[in-house]
Specification:
alpha+beta
Length: about 475
């Protein structure tokens, strides 16, 4: 591995390049456009209107998705008895779409009736009226009526807000993903080219996993993303979510296998080594995909659907996901602590552990910071499933993509073979240089294909004496 040939100066250079690239991504996001554009319409309740008719602004595929929210303004002072009060009320929504030839069509030809919860402490919470995951029309006309509103709330006005993706951000996102697709493809080809002259038996466990993660990173950047702007369908968005969840779970599996596999040499049995890890990570992947599909399928039939409607089922899935995530974290910490305690004094292996642990720790810290800035303290509450619209700028979106891409690029660089690796492999038949060619694991633990242990001097002398007597 190139990791063994890097000097301290080279290590510093690798770390500096990683932070420079990541910082450049953040700066591009900061100066970039806002992710969400919104338009608010305020309607007074002086005439006790029973139905509100709203029309969206002209839309294109670059708007990607559409949200309509409502915030009620009270005409009376706040009362402390409303602090923890949530009152249900009924909401009826009719959706009509306007086509390019100006004809108006009913969306699914249905009137949607839902129950929402109103809480005013002290400001009334924002109510999501509907969410359209893909846009089939150039404009939407919405009719909304509220029934059974609590009489002790003297509602002064209704603020309806349309939210869509900023077309400028959508264009930047296309270019941003395209650049990372090209970079990932180049890195993948270079990494595969560097390993082409070596047998897979000689690859380290990190190199084997990088040959899996780099193609998955290519899918994570989603080369099919432009399809969502060419066709009005839910399929490109679902494909993007599937690719992201697949890569992230593969990355979680990579950490488990490396920290465990670096201690366990020889044949890694499927039942004892891989099965527990695949079970834990597979449950995480299954829970995340199930929640995403559940939300998407229901929204296709009913744009006013919210996971809060199936509160019990949603809470059960969320608890299941959190329990499995806690099990994963504890298992990973156990593997890290045990690997560091057992292998910290061994040459080469301690370097592999220190580098991977330090870089992964930095990535996790930045990831947690990005999630906190994005969701705040409600990261595991109401935005658990739903795509958040609380991005302040492109930096919060672009930084996470850049972080994972540069993390994999750095690992691919340090885990690629060094320049002298091929020359050292040619010395395998020379006993004086045999350790140079052994894989990292064979040097420390012994090769799996050695036919017999070395004989000590006493055994050799006894064998020589027997041969002399026979002569």
């Amino acid at each position: 591995m190139r990791l063994y040939t890097l000097s301290k100066r080279h290590f510093v250079l690798v770390v500096v390049v990683f932070f420079l690239c990541f910082g450049l991504t953040i700066l591009i996001g900061i100066v970039g456009p806002n992710v969400i554009v919104s338009a608010t319409t305020q309607l007074n309740n002086s005439s006790k209107i029973s139905q509100f008719n709203l029309s969206s602004q002209p839309l294109s595929t670059y708007n990607q998705q559409l949200w309509l929210t409502c915030t009620m303004q009270l005409g009376q002072p706040y009362d402390e008895k409303w602090k923890n009060l949530e009152v249900p009320f009924n909401m009826s929504v009719t959706i009509r779409g306007v086509t390019k030839n100006a004809s108006v069509q009913h969306f699914n030809k249905e009137k949607y009736n839902q129950t929402r919860m109103l809480s005013c402490a002290p400001q009334c919470t924002e109510i999501i009226v509907l969410h359209l995951g893909h846009l089939n029309y150039i404009r939407y006309e919405i009719s909304i009526s509220f029934e059974n509103l609590p009489p002790f709330y003297q509602i002064k006005s209704y603020n309806f807000t349309w939210k869509t993706y900023n077309p400028s951000f959508s264009q930047m996102e296309i270019w941003f993903r395209f650049v990372f697709v090209v970079l990932t493809f180049i890195v993948t080809c270079l990494f595969a080219h560097s390993l082409r002259k070596f047998s897979m038996r000689d690859w380290g466990i990190e190199q084997k996993w990088m040959s899996i993660l780099l193609p998955l990173l290519l899918l994570y950047n989603d080369p099919f993303f432009p399809l969502s702007f060419l066709i009005s369908s839910w399929f490109p968005g679902m494909l993007d979510d599937l690719f992201q969840s697949l890569f992230l779970c593969a990355l979680l599996l990579f950490w488990l296998c490396v920290y465990h596999g670096i201690r366990v040499q020889g044949e890694r049995k499927c039942l004892t080594f891989y099965f527990p890890k695949f079970l834990i990570v597979g449950l995480l992947w299954l829970a995340s995909v199930t929640l995403g599909i559940w939300q998407t399928v229901n929204e296709l039939h009913d744009p006013t659907y919210q996971y809060g409607i199936d509160g019990n089922n949603f809470q059960g899935m969320k608890i299941f996901f959190l329990v499995v995530a806690i099990v994963y974290i504890l298992y990973l910490l156990f593997l890290i602590i045990r690997a560091c305690s057992e292998l910290r004094n061994l040459p080469y292996v301690d370097l592999r552990l220190k580098f991977l642990t330090a870089l992964t720790f930095v990535v996790l810290i930045f990831s947690i910071a990005i999630l906190y800035l994005r969701f705040g303290t409600q990261v595991l509450q109401d935005n658990f499933v739903e795509l958040s619209t609380h991005y302040h700028n492109s930096a919060e979106f672009l930084s996470f993509y850049g972080l994972l891409n540069f993390y994999l690029y750095t690992l691919a660089f340090v885990y690629s073979p060094s320049k002298n690796a091929l020359y050292e492999s040619q010395l395998k038949d020379n006993p004086a240089f045999s350790m140079l060619n052994d894989s990292d694991d064979d040097v420390i633990y012994g090769s799996d294909y050695e036919e017999m242990p070395l004989q000590n001097g006493q055994a050799i002398r006894a064998k020589f004496k027997e041969e002399s007597d026979s002569d």
